[in-house]
Amino acid sequence: MSQASNPAGFEHLPGRARRPHRASGYRETVTQDRWAQWVLRRRDAGDVDVRERGAWLLEAYRNGVLNRAAVTAGDVLLDVGTGDGLIGFAALDRVGPGGRVIFSDISADLLAECRRRADAGGLRDRCRFVQASADDLREVQDQSVDVVTTRSVLIYVERKQAAFAEFFRVLRPGGRLSIFEPINSFEAAQARRCLFGFDMTPVADLAAKLRRAYDSVPQDQNPMLNFDERDLLGWARAVGFAAVELDYRAEVEVPEPLPTLDWEVLKKMAPNPLAPTLEEALAQTLTDQERDRLEDHVRAILAVGTPARKTLATAFLRAIRPWLRDPTAQSATSRK
Length: 336
Description:
With about 325 residues, the chain is α/β, with parallel strands linked by helices. About 35% of the residues lie in helices and about 20% in strands.
């Protein structure tokens, strides 16, 4: 349900230079759950310009998932962790009038947003909405869908193999699984400069304090960090998927423009639904004097247009539920 997220709290999306702030048109209230608050506002500080600049990357992830899913007219597609419907609504175009899309998310508020959008677009008759977690899709019948998609969902799921088992269960024989996940353990293993990859040497003591707001959970206990691309392959194969393909991409300190050069907007952005904004983290970890010192350093960097330096790894995985399991495997299972 999230975009690729950095658990350290300093991820960014490509963008352009500063323009006047424009508020997002999404409906977000303080009573919404944390998932909806992040998707609809906190990931881009509610700034419509930042949202627009990041849209191309989200669309690339979406198209990568849908293209690998080989969606065809008449398919029934289940989008797990649908968020605001980025994949689900695009899938409606591909399944055509004879197909359907099931929007599934743990967040009732995000499903309400998807319903609103479906009603506004006259699409409701081809949509179904299911509140469920990825590892418990009991509201979806066995072998009832042709395609399962997810994007940046498993990073929030502790029982990842159970989620793969649910994907397998709901797919018809010959059905396709297509997922995208950031591999945050890769970034965590690199020597990180902290805060958009900027050189924070003059305020290294403060940057270290700031980072504590994002590193409170040990890596081996953090579902966002305790797996890599090899685990995704292993879980898919363990539950019975065949023809498993994985496309992996890694980048280390690649220069990239920030979504905005406005520090007042940047510090109101949160890297994922479970993390504080930079503004919140600054308030939690630094004194007023320390905060001013760190912010003055960052503003000076932004003033000269210094690009961010991105360190990131991502994976697309595609797999098929076979028509029949290996007879040898079936026989061995029946003897247990």
